[in-house]
Write a structure and sequence with these properties.
Strand order of the largest sheet of chain A: 1-3-2
Distance between the termini of chain A: 18 Å
InterPro entries (chains A, B): WH-like_DNA-bd_sf, WH_DNA-bd_dom, WH_DNA-bd_sf
Oligomer: homodimer
Protein name (chains A, B): Transcriptional regulator
Pfam family, one (chains A, B): HTH_34
Radius of gyration of chain A: 15 Å
Largest interface: A-B, 18 and 18 residues
Structural class of chain A: mainly alpha
CATH class of chain A: Mainly Alpha
Order of helices and strands of chain A: HHEHHEEH
Organism (chains A, B): Micromonospora endolithica
DNA sequence: CTTAGGCTTGCCGCCATGGAAAATGACTTC
DNA sequence: GAAGTCATTTTCCATGGCGGCAAGCCTAAG
């Protein structure tokens, strides 16, 4: 069981939600995430970059099928490292909520 | 049972910890809280003000006992409103952790 | 009146955040 | 293969939070 560890990078509201969503889904499409969060392309892109720089999120772009209307999709997912960090952060939050920290 | 409600004011790391601590203890001395959090007087004072402005925290200063070494103490505590808000915020965090939000 | 303790405020630098708009990159099309 | 599209990414810029130092205040004690 991972140690509780408060993570400033994850704590920011938008990034916390991103991690929560990615933690449940195996992966999510950039556009879907952006709409779910109700933020702009630019904003999501920057938060994803922040998380990717910490190796918490991985990005993979579908080369797309040859045929016309096949959208190009950017898939986002939490890396194992990201899952651990998120779990540790959640634990830190629980400790705070219970006033154990 | 209160609704889950994400509260930006409470979410800031230092304030989240302040609320967590005050939520458990009935009230805490300014100095103790400052040392527990490991921050400066100024910083704690400003965060407390922020919370007080939202009516989450109440401040009461002991007039002190007449006798000499009786320290003047500033007691801080979570108001009922503050407790509800904190509980609601914690619930919002749980929802995010479980990806229900 | 002067001190001293203890919180509060003003000041200032620094970094985070968000969106609009310009810039990219990777296909499609003609 | 030049031009167009679409889906992000970056740049630019304005706004606002945060922290500490130092000065200010207030209250109680000399």
């Amino acid at each position: 069981m991972t140690e509780a560890r408060f993570d400033e990078t994850i704590h920011a509201p938008v990034r916390l939600r991103i991690c929560g969503l990615l933690n449940k889904a195996d992966r999510l499409d950039f556009a879907v995430l952006r709409d779910t969060l109700g933020i702009s392309d630019a904003t999501l892109s920057k938060h994803i970059k922040t998380l990717a720089d910490s190796h918490y999120v991985t990005i993979s772009k579908s080369s797309s099928a040859k045929r016309t209307d096949a959208r190009r999709v950017t898939w986002l997912s939490l890396s194992p490292t990201g899952r651990s960090a998120f779990a540790a952060h959640v634990r830190a939050l629980q400790d705070i909520a219970d006033s154990r920290a």
